[in-house]
Amino acid sequence: MSENIRHFRDLRVYQSGMEAVISVFDRSKGFPDEEKYSLTDQIRRSSRSVCANLAEAWRKRRYPRSFVSKLNDAEAEAAETQVWLEVAQRHGYISQQEFDELDLNYENILGMLVKMAAEPSKWTIESK
Known about the structure:
Layout: H1 12-28, H2 36-59, H3 64-90, H4 96-118
């Protein structure tokens, strides 16, 4: 684990996830009112859950399997967000360019999550 990372907020993947949360929230403000209790809630929930699961994973670093499990949860939420983004784009709520930008952000987030889960020993705390 890097010496400079002392908190989940120091993780590049968390920072990217939080930037994505803000982008998703801002773009979802323009969704139609009839989507308020469906698409808008779903996309906001799943995008926020990526960061929430990362925070939980970080606090479970003493338990590698739990750490990886929470990373997998974050990965699933990121993929779910990609689905909702595609739905929004296909309905015309966001442009193709907005979709492409956000989808690429989530692909990068997913890549970082997969890498962390594949090498948990770089991130977890050794039991003594």
